[in-house]
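Q: My labmate handed me this sequence with no annotations at all. I'd like to see what the chain might look like in three dimensions before we decide whether it's worth expressing. Could you predict it?
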Amino acid sequence: MPYINLKGFEEDKAISEKIVSKISEITEKPKKYIMFSNEENKISFNNKSGYLLEYRQIGELEYDKKLKIVKEITKILQEKNIHPEDIYFIFDFYPRENWGWNNKLFG
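A: Here is what I predict for the chain of 107 residues:
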């Protein structure tokens, strides 16, 4: 159950759907289990606007898949004239017993 939080980007339903679809494709997780949130609050890096994509999930994700997420999401954001050097990614992974849903823990 991946959770994606995009910070610094104005809400754009089409871009959000592309990101969720791409994450689903790369991770092989159904879209219905991918949580997505968008925070429009401003982020700055080196005195200019920046963007941060936080990716969290239960269990680990292979290096190749993380790299593919970085490359593919960067391509999607470039459609909005966002430069790759302004996009940052953070990947966090959790044990099953640290996530709950539907009145129970996963682990």
